[in-house]
Amino acid sequence: MDDQFLTETKPTWCPGCGNFGIWMALKNALTTLAIPRENIVIVYGVGCHGNMRDWMNVYGVEGLHGRALPVAQGIKLANPNLTVIAVTGDGDCLGEGGNHFIHAAKRNPNITVLVHNNEVYGLTTGQASPTAQIGMITKSTPSGVVDPPFTPASLAIFTGATFAARGFSGDIPHLTELISAAIMHKGFSVVDMLQPCVTFDKVHTYPWYRERIQKVEISEENLRDKKQSLELASTFGEKIPIGILHTRVEKTSEDCEIVANNKPLASIPIVNLDTVGILSQFQ
Amino acid sequence: MKTDITWAIGGEAGFGIMSSGTMLAKIFSRVGYGVIASNEYPSLIRGGHNFVSVRITTALVRAPKKSIQILIALNKETVTLHKDDLDDNAYVLFDEKDYAWKTEEFLHPITLLSVPFADLVGKADGDLVMRNTIALGITMYVLGKDLSLLTQMIQDQFKGKGETIIAANIQSAKIGFDYGKEHFPTHKECNLSEGIIQESHLVMNASEAVALGALAGGMKFAAIYPMTPINALIPLFADHAHELGIVYKQPEDEIAGINMAIGASLGGARSMVATSGGGFALMVEAISMVGIMEVPIVVDLGMRPGPATGMPTWTEQGELQMVYRAGHGEFPRIILAPGDVQEAYTLSKLAFELAEQFQTPVFLLTDKYINETLWQLPSSLMKNQIIEKGNAASHADILPFKRYDVTTANGISTRSVPGEKDHEYIANSYEHDEHGFTTEDSGMRNSMVEKRLRKMDAMKKIALLPSVFGSESADITFVTFGSLKGVIFDAIQELETQGVKAKLIHFAWVYPMNEAVQKILSSEKRLVSVEQNSTGQLASLIREVTGVTIGEQWLKYDGRQWTSEEIVKKVKGI
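Output (structure tokens, whole complex):
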């Protein structure tokens, strides 16, 4: 099958980079879901992950470092018929953009956030990210990381995300399922995507992850239970559970607005100010 | 009989001082008077000194006056702080329980009218908050007007607050009016002649006018983090979002606000943010992104004294140079600075047209004074809201679609919106090629920079010229921008009556400047820039853009708006 998403630009990621698996899984998911290409908008953060914009033939927005989520929410509120996906990284989303991440989770916009999680800042040549494990030696932590890491999925669940999953870039079919489920979920969906940085992280390699990841299948009832979900999501060490960790249905950010009727804002006629009654307060 | 009067009321915050000013202004606007109400207050919710002055004139009015003819003091401090602003023969209404003022304590000969506000409250429902309604009742009597104008306003203003509140206020108004009738029957000096304005007007501040102008300009999305002095925008959007067909979001911070607005604009909705200097500082990186992505965005920046938190509830024009240079890198922008509420409305509407036309940020530079002063604007402005469409993509476009076509003469390229088939592109914060794909190619970089900057030439051609008022050959020519328009207008009129030929050149379209500005300025005898800042930011900009040096700069930076009286005195060397 022709890859409808290819552009003339070839990927520039390092050979073996986890981003390849993620890119493939995302394209598979979008193909499986058969979303018209023109209705997909991907908002990228700044980092290695964000370079995907140049080899992904959809409406794309390469924003500022850390600011993908507010842009994504703005697009979704302007036109709720669009499938809006934020492709972001652990540094972009949880470092620079941490405030936006927790507030987006709180609002529950119907957007999907794919967090490329490799524990380092690759594009700036290998400093520790907010998900870096204690003791990890990087360019900015020569004696090892001292601050405890975030686990993106548990942060998402705790702050209100209605869907959270964790996947592995080395298991493309499984990650495809997770991304598809996240896109299909009506609400704020976060997929924490574990990926090795083959250039700047010699510890968290493909074999390292393969030894630890365990696929979990959780009953629907348990998936709605925030407490159980949080426990699974924050488990990260000798065992790393991957799969859908949390899902429940809540009112979305758009449900509270005029766009709940699925009309793009631009298509709503401009009202006559003297007929809507807004002016009486000035008389 | 008077044709021009300034009434003022002061007291502790939390006692309805502000709303009594609003009510009085609306009452007189309804029956053909010119009104303007300005306030002063500290950054507090309770306590502290709140002060509102309302100038009422029989014809239209452009600015408040400093000198007061009627002062209502709901505490001692009101008199202490404002007694030097009292006009000759001014009335001071005060409660002896606060302090027993004597005429010899005043600079000017004034009339003291003792009113037992606290005791009169006891006659109504006993709530001290009713003192201001009693004061309004007395005011109607002293101005020689019918009480019914006030009772009607009370009914309209408190509609929805319940019959009990309306009845209590009407009773208090009557108690005040009757007190005046009984005790001050000979005090007729402040009776007002009839207002002569025929046209119907609305009374609002510039924030509200910006909001209405935005709606008329097709605004569909606003993300506003609360900040003085632009907060009045928020309820207009938030309370009426569904009936207006818009989305208002309160973001987690100003960075999120501007980025949401950018997203909504990319998604096809005309979008805006509003903030003050500190909030805008957080938005600056995103403004730079607006520059490279070429997104239509309107930013309403309500200036107040800085640096940092500064004096949050006072006024300044300190952010012109910041807005002019905001954002790393070089890209075009438009800066508009409304001079009054009518311009706030018309320029806000225009800002959305310009943003769409040029695909750039457009700034509305307002300030605390204009955003919180109540002025009038003609109701007729609210009709005929037809908007111009920008340069939208169509089926006629050559594929593959070039969102950033570098070959157009004016630098403006066709814009598509997600959902449109075959018009995909990347809105890229990196330098990009004509499709939006990242590039570091030397040739494409040059073409793209030049494409963006060509818009500046196109903007200059349509840039509005400054408004010019006053004598053709003036001895003194004031140059200013934004909210000082009315104040200086009043000053040059007063100077004219005193035999001084004066002129005002007012920039509402500040940047980029029309090429003709240089000629307009160079033919003047004596140029004086009057600004509400300490470094002469407009004069610097004019020098940089036109090469014209403005010889004198009159600067005020104490947080209080220039008054026409101060300008006249300065001209006369007093």
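Chain A has one domain: 18-282.
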